Amino acid sequence: MKHQLACLACTFLALIPVSAQERCWGSPEPFRFVYDEAQLFDFAAEARVQVAIEKFNEAYGVTLVIYLAPDLCGWTALGFATVLGSDWGVGDAESDNGLVLLLSPKREGRSGGIALSVGKGLEEVVSDAEAQVIIDEMIPRLKEEDWFGAVAQALNTGLPAALRN
Q: What is the side-by-side strand order in the sheet with 34-36?
């Protein structure tokens, strides 16, 4: 009996971080393409990025979502972006053509991160190496805390180049 209770307690405790991580982001309702939870964009910049992503998604037949997170909540940046994309159903269910670009600023006591999660249907189009190139091209602007410029870099140069190949 003691062994069963100990196993039950271990199982419950093992689930706590996963549950906390799953609640790190809110609901995608109403659905949009930019979620600035970290408040890195002003209203005008967020609206411009929203419109640019709508045009981008239409031009390339993908669904790109940008999530600006105040905290990674214990996740790696790529893990956060991948699970968020899966939980929210980013992209067409049949073609799995979703992309999640995650940016999280490094703040006191919190690690930051950047990741581009690519849906399975796009993995042959946007490889891990290409995703890393897109991120690397954004880093100089991110070091200057130019969040809008970094996103514009990805939208105007990096992502279109990868999707054209």
A: 34-36, 63-68, 98-104, 113-118
